[in-house]
Amino acid sequence: MRLYEYEGKELFAKFNIPIPEGRLAASSREVEAIATEWNKPIVLKSQVLTGGRGKAGGVKVVENTYDAKAVAEKLFEMKIKGFPVEKLLVEPKLNIAREFYLGVTIDRLNYRLVVIASGEGGVDIEETAEKSPEKIFRKSFECDQELYKFDAVEIAKKLGLDSDHVKQAAQIIMNLYSLFKKYDAKMAEINPLVLTARGQLIAADSRISLDDDAVFRHADLAEMGIEKRHEEGEMTPREQQATEWGIPYLDLDGNIGMFPGGAGFGIMGNDFIHYYGGKPANFMDSGGGPSPERLAKMLVLLDENPNVKAIFGARFGGISRCDDFAKGVTMFLKEHGLSKPMVCRMTGNMWQEGVRLFDEAKKENPELFEHFEFHGIETPIEEISKRAVELAREAEGGK
Ligand code: GDP
Ligand code: MN
User: Fold this and answer.
1) Does the CB atom of residue 122 touch ligand 1 within 6 A?
2) Which tens digit of pLDDT belongs to each residue from 63-96?
3) Domain check: are 157 and 268 in the same one?
4) Is 106 in the pocket of ligand 1 (CB under 6 A)?
5) Which structural domain range is residue 81 located in?
6) HSE-CB for 364 with a 13 A CA cutoff
């Protein structure tokens, strides 16, 4: 979950990382009022949940108070990478002597935390990382390891500062590391960390991403107005819909809709589909005894996905019950209807009752079951997977 710059800066302040004095404005009139009150050069910073605002023209320096309103109006009309600008952070303009980069993130390949520092921060950091990787220093830590002062000093020295500022920077690094750990962050970044003409180190920008699943651990975030939110732009509309319905769901780039039991079954189904030369259109987890309503919604997600050409269904009733499964599928068939071929295998807890419900429903409304191929324990899961791949291929015209 990504935080806005101003939210990140509030967290910085809590951790004694120096930030500029700032105020949030939701209209150009508010900006004008702040500018008039301060009566000095300011920066207007678009608050959007994406990076690269500087390059996109979303950060503007206003030297003259009289211009503030007009500049703000232009910014409020902007969309940055698709995100409308609804709030501006107004700050006194910093007199920047140098820009540095500091970040803490997770090195997923090595299961470690990594602190990243560079003497060349600012809007071109990605380019620097690509073209001159030697200018970017990294030091990694075990996930439960503390970052000591001597570590922080070692990192700070790489920024190319004099000794007084090395001490200050080391303190900022330690504070950023504590913040990262305290709030279960995935990323905490200061870019740029600015050295002002007067010799102060200040965090001029913040970029913080928290682990969605840990947000509930931090009640004070809600007090600060930071609520769990969808990462717009990072979730597809279907993923957002699924999240609203409480269904763990991910879009993938294949054409077979995956309607498995729990996550484990889902992963196995994924492997089988690949093994037989097919590609799943999604990953979905229905485990933990889902209700018929929830199962029906899961099928709606698949049936309405234009990329899905065939549906693979596999239910092994463990905690969940096959009669509930049959009820959910039947509910979907009756209320929504299946527009794609679906192959489905069901076995396990309460399977006899499940089969009976399917038979009954089919007798009542045979037309609903037109695209629905049902199998029980007699058909191995490999056969079902193969069949799903076949159905998808047929639907694509034999490709
Ligand atoms: P980003 O492009 O989304 O990362 O936005 P930043 O907040 O990092 O701003 C981009 C650039 O604008 C920074 O690298 C600075 O060069 C410049 N900038 C940001 N704040 C100030 C400020 O207060 N004064 C001045 N002079 N420049 C600023
Ligand atoms: Mn930045």
Assistant:
1) yes
2) 999 999 999 999 999 999 878 999 999 999 999 9
3) no
4) no
5) 21-93
6) 9
